[in-house]
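Below is how a single chain appears once it has passed through the pipeline. First comes the sequence as given, then the structure the pipeline wrote out for it. We keep one example in the README because the format questions we get most often are answered faster by looking than by reading.
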Amino acid sequence: MAGFTHFNQQGEAIMVDVSAKKETVREATAEGRITMSSECFQKIKDGSMGKGDVLGVARIAGIMGAKRTADMIPLCHILNLTKVEIQFSLEGAECAVLAQCTVKTTGKTGVEMEALTGVNIALLTIYDMCKAVDKTMEMGGIHLCRKSGGKSGDFVRPGTPG
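Resulting structure:
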């Protein structure tokens, strides 16, 4: 198990000890999209979905999801997040909603999982609020766009706009 930090000498899963790490400002952004029928997209765009403000509810859900990442992903550290922001872009030609989650903290471990969780929960919430209109919606393209801070330094996914 050499090289894997989430396993001890006996191969058992452990939570990584980060106590010796330096605290640094850490930030991560992740994104993903959900595609849907033109009818469903128009209802989101117009704010006429029967369950209410789809993107407003999805934004709150994504923020809550990012804050609760350690409750859902085994071995994740509980982090004191200082920023969680969810942004949406409507992509009319594709009948898609792009969700982007940026998370920030000052700590000993990164916030990549929190950003990815925030995006996933936001997209799942859109699906939940719209499934009466379109059960064929599809989520995908979920990925880390960038991260900064920590020993490994900065990362920008190739093709990510500046």
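Residues 24-147 form a domain with the Alpha-Beta Plaits fold (CATH 3.30.70.640).

See the next section for the split statistics.
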